[in-house]
Structures are given as structure tokens and as C-alpha cells.
Amino acid sequence: MSAIEVDRLSHVYSGAEGGVPALQDISLSVEPGKFVVIVGPSGCGKTSLLMMLAGLRHQSSGTILCDGRPITAPDPSRVGVVFQEASLFPWLTSLDNTEFPLALRGTPRAERRRRAEEMLNLVGLKGFGARYPHELSGGMKQRVSIARGLVQDPPVLLMDEPFAALDEQTRMTMGHELLRIWSKTRKTVVFITHSLTEAVYLADEVLVMSPRPGRIIDRITIDLPRPRTYEMMATDTFGKLRERIWQQIRKPE
Q: pLDDT grade, residue 15 (50/70/90)?
């Protein structure tokens, strides 16, 4: 069974003159434990698609299945989400921010504290649980956000450009760290980015979207060995994969 199955999904935003078509006839399948990256030009509907996969927005037509069941509303037991902004509560510590989703579900305090500490350790923030967001760097805030997305142990993790606001050096480090976390948890990951280098470095498969209305116009298997290394970025294979993505994105309609 696929972790995610999308069949003939389309969406139109209501408005003047019949609305604005955002997504058109999207079908895709993501196998359990795979790391899939979605790229495309600005405004192509990448984030809209991700929000629909998360149950945070409803499509106009088509179906979305997660673990064989429809996604019609947010379901943190099946799908976790990490947004572009860390969106941490400034009055809560890193530990309290991480365990917040469990507190909403009424998980006993001892259990949610254990899970939150485990996740902070996993993302490399052992010893930072008592720190508040203003005491953390941008990369550390995103680590807390990832820990919060993992704390309910969903099989699927959706990530909407989580490193976009970081400087290049921190972004590369965070990408490498994300692969480390993924290798330990084996979650199914769907990741949105505008960085073609990041896409090739992270992915098992890259899905390329067209300008609006967004369609899947290419599916590229990234057959680089794992674990990935920074040195791979200098290889001809890496460059050719990146160029193939770029040629698809830059094509005029």
C-alpha cells in the first residue's frame, strides 16, 4: 500500500470570472519510507497541494489517501507538518513547544515530556529544552519545529520549504541533519523547495510542477547512493540531474 495516493486532484480558487485554477489533474503515489521532493515555479500550487495532503485545505475534485484512508481533515496521527516559519510560541520553552501537540490531545504529562525530550535529542538539541525561542538560532528553531512535527510519531511528514529563511551554510547543514533524522525514523517525507540543489541532494524522487495551474510534468528518480555527501554535489551525475529539473521549470508554456 502506498503511504500517499493522489488521484486526479484539481483545485479552483473561487473568485471573479469563474475562479482561479490552481491545480489540474494531479496524480501521484509515494511509497512508504521514501523521500519525495516537489519543485516548480513560484505560484504553481506546491504549497496548496501540500496543505491538501495535510487535510488543511479541501480540493475541488479528486481524492487523497493516506495509509489507504481519505484525508478530509488534519490527522496528526497520520500526517505531521513542518512549515516554512518555525511558528514557535515565544512564551514556551523548546521542550514545551515540542510537547504542545501531545498536550492538546490530553497525553499524560510524564509521557509527553518523555516523547518531547526524545525528539529534541533526535534533532540534535539535547540540553536545549529549557531555552526559549529568542535564545535559539534560526536553524535551532527549525529543529524544534521538526521535533514538534515528529512527536506524535506520524508515518508521513510534510515539509513546506522549512529551510528557506536560513543562510546557505545553515541550510546545507540542516539538509544533512534532516537526512540523518530521516534515516533513523524512516518516515515518508514530502518536501517542498525552490532550491534545485537541495532537491537533488535530499530526494529519492523529484516531482516537477508546471506553472499555474500546477500539473506534474516530470518525475525524476535520484539514483545517487545513500548516505548522501556534500562531495556528490560536484559530480557530473548531480549536475545533470539538477540541469534536467531546471530545463523543465524554465520551459515556456
A: confident
SS3 assignment for the chain? CCCEEEEEEEEEECCHHHCEEEEEEEEEEECCCCEEEEECCCCCCHHHHHHHHCCCCCCCEEEEEECCEECCCCCCCCEEEECCCCCCCCCCCHHHHHHHHHHHCCCCHHHHHHHHHHHHHHCCCCCCCCCCHHHCCHHHHHHHHHHHHHCCCCCEEEEECCCCCCCHHHHHHHHHHHHHHHHHHCCEEEEECCCHHHHHHHCCEEEEECCCCECEEEEEECCCCCCCCHHHHHCHHHHHHHHHHHHHHHCCC
37-57 residue pLDDT tens: 999 999 999 999 999 999 999
Q: Which three cell numbers stand for residue 19?
A: 475562479
List the chain domain ranges.
Answer: 30-58+70-78+155-253, 89-153
User: Confidence class of residue 253 from pLDDT cuts 50, 70 and 90?
Assistant: low
| Domain 30-58+70-78+155-253 top-level CATH class | alpha beta
pTM greater than the 0.85 cutoff: yes
